[in-house]
Automatic annotation (TrEMBL):
Name recorded for this polypeptide: Bifunctional serine/threonine-protein kinase/ABC transporter substrate-binding protein
Pfam families in the record: Peripla_BP_6, Pkinase
Domain (Protein kinase): residue spans on this chain: 15-265
GO molecular function list: kinase activity
SUPFAM superfamilies: Periplasmic binding protein-like I, Protein kinase-like (PK-like)
Organism from which the protein derives: Streptomyces durocortorensis
Binding site for ATP: K43
Gene3D superfamilies: 3.40.50.2300, Phosphorylase Kinase, domain 1, Transferase(Phosphotransferase) domain 1
InterPro entries registered for this protein in UniProt: Kinase-like_dom_sf, Leu-bd, Peripla_BP_I, Prot_kinase_dom, Protein_kinase_ATP_BS, Ser/Thr_kinase_AS
Compositional bias annotation for Low complexity: 309-324
Database matches in SMART domains: S_TKc
Alphabetical UniProt keywords: ATP-binding, Kinase, Nucleotide-binding, Signal, Transferase
Length: 748
């Protein structure tokens, strides 16, 4: 998944484009959202290809073919417009990787997984053939892996059985290495060619190699036609069916429906027991056999699902569909930019904001030279160009310094002050920093006035904060109105609606609480594998608890069984949850909720019941109420958090020492993250080249900037303006009554 570019449409029929899933010479596949919130994969054909009547006819045929096929292992068509200037086809979105990605990264799959894969793909092909179609391009890249099984996609070159191809005579259509001999020789085609391709796919999945070798297309096609496949390494239980599928004569291959329903029948003349074909004694080898999830797939789907669900709608461009170019600008054959393209480009420049265009940008060049050559400074009243003095930019701090959240606010202030002092102490800096601090006392109405005051100050180029637990949309709207970017470090939840417009001026540097379950799953996969996981769904926290529970349901670790137990509101139910953990022989218990006192009561009940397995929860459930309420029962609990312990990080050693020296105490939670946020702003300010518009362009620049901080490297998904959480989720374990920092979840 990649960010949209300036050439991508923002609306495609009734869909809003969110990101790119893939691109080729013919068009682009977008991740998009319907008006009802459903995600879809929308293929858009470039206008120059759609202008070709033959190509449009081919795409029209693809849409018709895909719509005719139905089955559990194919992807349903949601809509299409084959007559649009840039025709499109929408199908359901599958957040899983392709078979090619999984095998390419991890090698051959286990025999049981390949067997289940074969049954389900055969059932998908049977549905294709029942519809009177031939897929013609069955290959690992066209097989997506979901948690319940594979999905066969892409009917781009499918056609009716017996129909005349819309290609030149003797043209070879498909992917060398997965083509049947009759396809390689441009002979008459039938459903059997898909069965041959299925055999190639299964051989690849079982060995990690193509059965007819690598190299140029001509050599691969020659071996496909004249030589036997290389099936070295194919497990014996898979060999009969794969061999039968790869028969040179189409009439010797079993039909897909027989492979799906009874793989032994027709696999070879001397194979009569269908159980022998797939090596599953005593079971009927059909698609009802459990899908064996490949290792690592669960966590990958969880991360992709979380990323997709949090994508906002981008700000629309002037037109519904813009021509898709090559990213170099709309330039005609004579090298001159057309008037229409120039107007479109200028309009996009005004409208595009952070997340709507571009990938992460590593800044370069001489910012000092740029600053020295500017005619005037933006967002600051410091020295003018040519004075020899670097400009001074002001960063605002919006914090609760005297209210209920003053501990977090104070940590922010100390981290920000150290960052400003550290930046200004370095020689040959291209810019200097100043700080303006505003206290909202944790009061919502005062927070709005604080945003107005900072927004009205032309010297302020960006704001760190607010520092509360929940980021409210009305505050972000105030900053958006002033075209001032708040860089939010600590808020674990937000009421900002994606696509509302206000979020286009927002930069979030932490993983939100709803994504912390990914760290817990990683712990149960890599650190303390669990075969039986009890999910205690806390009804007292339906929002965060529901999000944690949903992540575990959608991404249960491979080979694990998820057992669910509801925890009702009120004071009852803890003992029942603890008894369920013991009687169900659970290896791990997950508290799906964010209430620290309720997590403490669950911890106590589990200890009283004698449960000694792994116990986990997301960060909001870790607090004084948990530690004091659970007492000794808190020992061993593991929590996923979005903040680090700088005292345990070698990269933060100097920061920790400076904090102790200046404030007489080690850095508190969020101090180091606030320190990194200031340096991120300084880096983005030094890379901004829009004369006179420094602060209004900061939000876009921030999410296109990568900064290697003392806590972690800050890099962003440009389409969501949220920090990448690959290294932004940290685990803590309670030891001797205190949380002990374990490290990033993916490094344990």
């Amino acid at each position: 998944m990649r960010p949209l570019t300036s050439e991508d449409p923002r609306t495609i029929g009734p869909y809003r484009a969110l990101a790119r899933l893939g691109a080729g010479g013919m068009g682009v596949v977008h991740l998009a959202r319907s008006a009802g919130g459903a995600l879809a994969a929308v293929k858009v054909i470039r206008a120059e290809h759609a202008a070709d009547p033959a190509f449009r006819a081919r795409f029209r045929r693809e849409a018709e073919a895909a719509a005719r096929v139905s089955g559990p292992w194919t992807v349903p068509v949601l809509g299409a417009d084959t007559e649009a200037r840039e025709p499109w086809l929408a199908t359901a979105y599958v957040p899983g990787p392709s078979l090619g990605e999984v095998v390419g990264a991890g090698g051959a799959l286990p025999p049981d997984t390949v067997a289940a894969l074969g049954r389900r793909l055969a059932e998908a092909l049977a549905a294709v053939h029942t519809a009177g179609l031939i897929h013609r391009d069955v290959k690992p890249g066209n097989v997506l892996l979901a948690l319940d099984g594979p999905r066969l996609i892409d009917f781009g070159i499918a056609r009716h059985e017996g129909a005349t191809a819309l290609t030149a005579t003797d043209a070879v259509i498909g992917t060398p290495g997965y083509l049947a001999p009759e396809q390689a020789t441009a002979g008459p085609l039938g459903p059997a060619c898909d069965v041959f391709s299925l055999g190639c796919v299964l051989a690849y999945a079982a060995t990690g190699r193509r059965p007819f070798g690598e190299g140029g297309a001509a050599g691969v096609l020659f071996r496909t036609i004249h030589e036997d496949p290389d099936l070295t390494g194919v497990p014996p239980v898979l060999l009969p069916v794969i061999t039968a599928c790869l028969a040179k004569d189409p009439s010797d291959r079993p039909p897909a429906r027989r492979i799906a329903a009874d793989p032994g029948a027709g696999a070879s003349p001397d194979l009569r027991d269908p159980r022998e074909a797939w090596g599953q004694p005593g079971t009927r080898p059909d698609s009802s056999t459990p899908w064996v999830i490949p290792a690592g797939l669960t966590a990958l789907i969880a991360e992709r699902s979380a990323a997709a669900l949090t994508l906002p709608d981008p700000e629309p461009l002037p037109t519904t569909l813009t021509p898709a170019g090559d990213g170099t600008g709309d330039v005609g054959e004579d090298g001159a930019e057309s008037r229409r393209s120039r107007r479109s480009r200028l309009a996009r420049r005004r409208l595009l904001t952070a997340g709507a265009a571009g990938a992460v940008l590593l800044t370069g060049g001489s910012t000092a030279a740029w600053l020295a050559g500017r005619q005037r400074r933006a967002g600051s009243g410091g020295p003018s160009a040519g004075s020899g003095e670097p400009p001074t930019y002001t960063i605002g701090l919006h914090a609760d310094l005297s209210g209920p959240g003053r501990a977090t606010g104070l940590a922010h202030r100390r981290g920000v002050e150290l960052a400003v002092a550290d930046h200004n102490s370095r020689k040959e800096q291209a810019l200097r920093l100043a700080l303006r601090t505003e206290d909202d006392a944790g009061d919502p109405r005062q927070a709005l006035r604080t945003a107005d005051r900072l927004g009205a100050d032309p010297e302020v180029i960006a704001v760190v904060g607010p520092t509360g637990d929940v980021l409210r949309e009305e505050i972000v709207e105030r900053y958006a109105k002033a075209r001032l970017a708040p860089v939010v470090v600590a808020a674990g939840a937000t009421t900002v609606e994606t696509g509302s417009g206000a979020d286009l001026h927002l930069c979030l540097t932490r993983t939100l609480d709803r994504a912390l379950a990914t760290g817990l799953i990683g712990y149960l996969v890599n650190t303390r594998p669990a075969k039986r996981i009890l999910l205690v769904q806390d009804a007292a926290d339906p929002v965060l608890g529901g999000e944690i529970g949903g992540t575990f349901r959608n991404a249960t670790p491979t080979g694990s069984t998820l057992i669910e137990h509801p925890l009702p509101r009120g004071a009852a139910g803890y003992g029942g949850a603890a008894r369920k953990a013991v009687t169900a022989r659970a290896d791990a218990v997950v508290h799906a909720g964010g209430d620290a006192s309720r997590a403490a009561r669950l911890a106590t009940a589990l200890a009283d019941a004698g449960f000694t397995g792994t116990r986990l929860a997301a960060g909001p459930a870790l607090g004084p109420a948990f530690l004091t309420g659970a007492g000794r029962a808190a020992e061993g609990w593991v929590f996923a958090e979005a903040y680090s312990d700088p005292a345990a990080l070698p990269a933060a050693r100097a920061f920790t020492a400076a904090h102790r020296k200046r404030f007489g105490a080690p850095p508190a939670t969020w101090a180091a993250e606030a320190y990194d946020a200031v340096h991120l702003i300084a880096r983005a300010a030094g890379a901004t080249s829009a004369s006179g518009e420094l602060r209004s362009g900061m939000a876009r620049r921030l999410v296109r900037t990568e900064h290697r901080g003392i806590v972690r490297t800050l890099a962003f998904h440009a389409s969501t303006r949220q920090a990448r959480h690959e290294n932004g989720i940290f685990l803590y374990r309670i030891e001797n009554g205190r949380p002990r920092f374990l490290g990033p979840y993916d490094e344990l």
